[in-house]
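Sample intake sheet
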Amino acid sequence: MNSSFRKLQNIAGKAHCSNKKEDLACYAYDATARSYLPDAVLFPRNAEEISAILILANKDGFFVIPRGSGSGMTGGSLAVSGGVILVMSRLNRILEIDKDNLISHAEPGVVTGRFHQAVEKEGLFYPPDPASSEFSTLGGNLAECAGGPRAVKYGVTRDYVLGLEAVLPTGEIIHTGVQTAKGVVGYDLTRLLIGSEGTLGIITRMTLRLLPLPEAVRAMTAVFDKMEKAAETVSEVIRRGFIPRTIEYMDNASIRCAESHLKIGLPVEAEALLLIEVDGKVDEADMLIKQLKTVCMSQGAKLVKIAENEAEVANLWKARKAISPALFKYGPDKINEDIVVPRSRIPDMVRKINALKEETGLTMVSFGHAGDGNIHFNIMLDKKNRAELKKAEEAIEAVFDHTLELGGTISGEHGVGITKAPYMAKEIGSVEIDLMKKIKKVFDPKGILNPGKIFPD
């Protein structure tokens, strides 16, 4: 890489390139806790620099891996075969918030939470809200097609992307999509790039759809003595025609974990807790939250409490978002999966997880976006214990198989990356996988962009 590194310095500037071990180590890992040392780290400032870097990569034969904040759960931003990490943090501008047309133009390095705050100051609303929004970036959200709690009512990231500027692996800069509510000219390249995990192009600018900010938000918690009752309540809420803004659930292990971490008075004896939010006009939100309270009580909730102020709501979300990092109190290692089943089959999935917990004796924790069937299923263990690891891997396989039997998918918002690639053929047929590989070959004939992701070896 020595010769190539000098050329890269000429493109991005010496101050924005490094091959020092201490710098490489900072970008060798992501939220999977797996580590692969890259050969160099670059901080490009615009699409033109990225284009020049990719043209050089094709000429000199090195790999390029785009990276946001490294908060991904499946290894999508790891340099699994070495190469150059492109950190997108310098492309961090909100270029425009257009109140007349309800759109915004932004760069990929903008932190999602900062974007939420900026548009809400203008009385507007960007619904996608991954749990990592305080540090994940818009570019990473687009690459993984991030979801979040509000997906039950508002959909996921791809539903809010109108157009893109992106650099192809071969160096061409392309512009896809529209700035209007409608547009059907040609193939939808925007949708193809969203969720492609940085394997088809590097996003350098985006046009995002916005909504008017809801006038009011109301929240409540419902406590259950059985996980199955909570799961059946979610199905009943939807069956009765209610579409809350969010329906999150926590099992007993996640409740205890969050409470030990935050000490805010969560019901640690409960088997399950639902966190439900609604939004809309003030009168609508007030009426809907009361109706949902009635539904929860009729389904056997032991206690239902409507939050009285914003501080109470903030505490509830603090607890929900604290679960994942706090889980390590149960073990030094974590296997984290995000399966999705049809909402009506959540009770079946919960029963399967409980059966596996009894059968294996492993510590299993589940929580997530019950409103759209997205269950974050975690096994806490010590991976150095080979017997424990083997049982965990068999349990994951059983969970994936049951998920597919129920008509679900093995990844709702975390992507495939490297951790789910071995299981991809369970869900996607060989003809379809071959077609995807052909698309990748068209975009990236020399295979230089983010190799080793999505497709099983």
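Comment: The chain has a mean pLDDT of 95. The CA atoms of residues 19 and 40 lie 5 Å apart.
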